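FIELD: query
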Amino acid sequence: MKKVLFVTFFWPPSGKATVHWPLGIARHLPSFGWQPLVLTADKDSFSQTDYSLTREVPPSIRVERAKALEPFGLYRALLGKKRAEPLIASESISLENHSIRHRLSIWIRMNLFIPDARVGWYWDAVRVGRRLLRSQRTDAIVSVGPPHTGHLVAKTLGRDFRIPYFPVFIDPWEDIVYYKSFKRNWLALALDHRMEESVLQNAAAAIFVTESMKEHYVKKYSWLALKSQVLYWGFDEEAFRNQRPQRKKKEEILLHTGNIFDYQNPAELWRTINRQVKRGRDLRLVFVGSVSPGIKRSIEEAGLEPRTTFKGFLPYKEVIRELTQASYLLVCATEPRHVPGKLFEYLRAGRPILAFGDDNAEVERILNEEAAGMMFPYNTDPHEFFRRARATKPKRRHVSSYARENIARQLASILDNFQFPL
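FIELD: result
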């Protein structure tokens, strides 16, 4: 059986959502002739931990961990947080916090840590990766980013051992959406661009998790046209097994999972829900994951605080249970080149999906193809969704094409069909 090395900063017990793509794909690849090895970080001090995910890692997968020199201890100290206090992604780049310490921490992150805050992992990851590749004949390397530091590790290992590497872009690199709100100096921008271009130039093929991101990068680098592939984020079918059907109840729950940031605030939605409630509907909001200060304030201003529950971080299986028990599912697709990973789990859960986003044609297309919900611009009253939602019936049979077993089959085909030049 051929072997493929996954370079991924996030791996169980990290509870970061990014874990689920490499974990799900790696679990299925042996069925298609590829045995995974994993190079990951020894710790993830930013994200919550989900130890239940460690049970999902097959014992046949060899996992090597490299030291991650992360700056988040300094970040906590700068913000006056306790050493063990968890960090919340939606708060770390919030525009609502105007304190000097917060602004300074953002400037340091945006201008001194290139390509990202995990760059300190690079050197030990290369060292551990070299040791692993000397002992294991490996046919391909797949790196997952962000953090895009992982792509730099894969590029170095691929060059040193003449192994083709395949970077998987879950998000764009140098112009990821949340960079738009912050100033970066010209040197940081130049270094970021050079790193991105070099990784893509030397890659065997670039893999994007959306068609729109692929189109963006091909337009940016025309030479990528002949070596770009799309593999969607997908979902793990196994996670939905043995889930009980939704309980019939009077209250209607609109659920959002994952991080939601200030720049994703569908303010008109909160006002619409308030009007629906006044007309007699028992609508309630539930958030699983982190919620930015700006979103919370907007919900409070709409008078929905008594009808809102913030559950914070939950283990993955509990998140899936929340999905299957909700009435409706909320997704905010701000980045036009990005399809939120949660969308595919939403599709599998089979609940009507309410989406917000300006110019995200790909999310709208997927919702329409699956008859799974409706999408609105951020400044639009979505009352039509609540009028029609109960009649929404997603195409469950077609949704199965997004299962990660199918995506692993596609990745195996990409690896099988590549001929590395002698």
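FIELD: remark
The radius of gyration is 21 Å.
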